[in-house]
Design brief:
The structure is a single chain. It is built from eleven helices and no strands. The protein has 205 residues and is an all-alpha fold. The termini are far apart. Helix 8 packs antiparallel against helix 9.
Length: 205
């Protein structure tokens, strides 16, 4: 029997982000997911090395790869619409969950439970309380990585002379700074790595 999971997931490259914005260079969901994966991994490594956590950085990277996979089915709903009010936010969360279950259903039965542990935070029932706390913190860092990726996109658009993203950059930066109050890993990444995103290729070498 043939299964459609990976063929379906591969269609992330056809989902364009920032649909309501004028982009100097379009960004697709595959590109964004790779960046989130790398940043999420880095945040967890920082947390383990500098702050004594026991975070699963490899799992964070995989969660980052799949964090927006539901958009293969739903499309990329613009943030102002998605978070317009509590009712819309709650309804969209339900739609996302249904879409994610639909994607997982494209796997063989014996693999589904392992992938649910990636897609859903409550899918692993055998974790200790300490492991659950670290899992929850790790998933918060993945969400922070998602915000950082959005900020990087805003920086790149600003550097290209596109002022369309100036409001998004301001609101995203404020959101990240608020998150960093409880996640020092985020502050460290911004201090150590974010300034480089404004450099030219020659300056990076």
């Amino acid at each position: 029997m043939s299964y459609n999971y990976f063929a379906l997931v591969s269609r992330m490259k056809y989902i364009e982000r920032w649909a309501l914005m004028r982009n100097s260079r379009p960004e697709n969901l595959s590109e964004h997911s790779l960046e989130v994966s790398m940043i999420a991994h880095a945040l967890c490594v920082i947390g383990n090395v500098r702050y004594g956590h026991k975070l699963d950085a490899d799992k964070a990277a995989v969660i980052g790869l799949y964090h927006d996979a539901s958009e293969i089915i739903t499309g990329d709903m613009p943030t102002p619409v998605k978070y317009y009010n509590k009712d819309i936010k709650s309804a969209y969360k339900e739609v996302e969950k249904v879409a994610e279950e639909h994607i997982i259903d494209k796997l063989p039965d014996d693999l589904k439970d392992e992938y649910r542990k990636i897609f859903f935070s409550d899918a692993d029932e055998f974790l200790t309380e300490e492991e659950k706390a670290e899992e929850a913190y790790m998933r918060r860092l993945v969400k922070a990585a998602d915000k950082l990726s959005a900020l990087i996109k805003c920086i790149e658009e600003e550097n290209s002379g596109n002022r369309e993203f100036r409001t998004a950059m301001d609101s995203t930066q404020k959101s990240i700074e608020k998150m960093a109050e409880e996640m020092p890993e985020l502050h460290d990444f911004m201090k150590d790595f974010l300034p480089s995103y404004g450099m030219t290729l020659d300056e990076l070498e």
